[in-house]
């Protein structure tokens, strides 16, 4: 049994609603779980302390007053839990994840799919074109990766050189501001 279920059984014990089989399960868990055993001891001590309190009772109509307040609260229907915007986010997010998942499966298994389609008489001509397109897309993707790598390298060089220029520009502006402040003080 996990600690979460043990915690529920501890609450049932505290309420006096635990049956014998549940008590045996709880007891065996408490023998092996130090954390739950400590929690049980704390709950048990609290229960004993509460039993020692004499004369503390809720007013006669307390339960009725609480129930009236509960029933007077506005009811929230299931469809009001999420706004339209949240629902749209969930729909589009789910659609995107589904589309991405199907795309990844197709990309990962493209060769097997093309081979199976090539065996079918209807798709024989199309698979030749598809194979050509796949190789063209792969070639363009490699070119794009190389190009992006070069752009990143050039950007790093430009930013590295620009950082020095910006630093000197900031130092110059600070010096200019100090000179202007000193002139105002005169």
Radius of gyration using CA atoms only? 36 Å
Regions with pLDDT < 50 over 5+ consecutive residues? none
The count of β-strands is 0
Gap from first CA to last CA = 82 Å
Q: Strand-residue fraction?
A: under 5%
Counted by DSSP, the helix tally is 7
What order do the helices and strands follow?
Answer: HHHHHHH
Class based on secondary structure composition and strand pairing: mainly alpha
Mean pLDDT: 82
What does the largest sheet look like? none
Helix content: over 70%
Report the principal-axis shape.
extended
Question: Characteristics of this structure?
Answer:
186 residues, mainly alpha
What is the topology?
Elements lengths: L2 H13 L4 H13 L1 H19 L9 H11 L11 H25 L1 H10 L4 H62 L1
Compact overview of the structure:
By secondary structure, the protein is mostly helical. The chain contains 7 helices and no strands.
Q: What report would you give on this structure?
A:
With 186 residues, this protein is an all-alpha fold. The protein is 82% helix and 0% strand. It has helices at 3-15, 20-32, 34-52, 62-72, 84-108, 110-119, 124-185. Helix 1 packs parallel to helix 3 (34-52) and helix 6 runs antiparallel to helix 7. The chain starts with a helix and ends with a helix. The mean pLDDT is 82.
